């Protein structure tokens, strides 16, 4: 596929006022979240929940793409309609998480490298045939006194770049997700320094592997202080530190940044995104949007609680989070949160 086609897909995902819904939890992660709420950890419950998400009326007004896992990409509603087809009908692009998870990095206790490159080429071909237009791969970096190590930085950035090159070869837009984990007692400044280092390495490796920046998206974590740090930054400080870090490390040819929420509360994640737009709106070389999982889904999941009767209320909760983030990237938050006609 040409760079023009990849670039067009990336731009469509960055449609103004819209972001991505990350609903690609692996079976283990999804089951753990269900179990914590007393929901049966079954294939049928996962199907029912994902059906609820993708059939939310009006979802497409604030969501341009949905990231699915392998199971969901192949799944059908109770009445036999494919979830991919439902998304396509709603004008939401289906995407696919293609990494096989973070595994311990040999020789570096407490650090991880994401696996899944072996056999990726034929998997990507099949995913494209099944309707995926873009893909996602998550690398995990931890902050500690001696972490991340150079080994973890290079191994993860290399894997992200090889994944991205394979995606573009298969006609899929790669979403490159280097997540610097929130957990710890590190300061905002330390997270900024680590995130900048990670992004420099990622873009160096993307260049080495010949990835066309115009045909990809970046899904980074925001720059935050660890929850155990006694000196917690203001919303404005997080916004400034995050954007400053991106400006230093992310080339202007890359069209869009879609943040993960990373364990922040839904409200925090949205406020940080809104503050970035308030401080820097119109001055940045790339679009800034959201690709949240928990920060979009958590309230809906809690309301649904595995009960079909709670479906409409759960969908309403999802829509409220989507509206809040739409407002954050369009016109400010929280002023528009909750106004039904705001998107
Ligand atoms: C970091 O997680 C990604 C974004 O979700 P949050 O906004 O909740 O942080 C998310 O897309 C993640 O990559 C998927 O849920 C897949 O996770 P696992 O670990 O189950 O593969």
Automatic annotation (TrEMBL):
Keywords: Glycolysis, Lyase. It comes from Hymenobacter amundsenii. GO terms for molecular function: fructose-bisphosphate aldolase activity. PROSITE patterns: ALDOLASE_CLASS_I. The keyword Lyase applies. Its EC number is 4.1.2.13. It catalyses: beta-D-fructose 1,6-bisphosphate = D-glyceraldehyde 3-phosphate + dihydroxyacetone phosphate. Belongs to the class I fructose-bisphosphate aldolase family. Coiled coil: none annotated. Pathway: Carbohydrate degradation; glycolysis; D-glyceraldehyde 3-phosphate and glycerone phosphate from D-glucose: step 4/4. Pfam families: Glycolytic. One of its GO terms (biological process) is glycolytic process. It comes from the Bacteria. This is Fructose-bisphosphate aldolase.
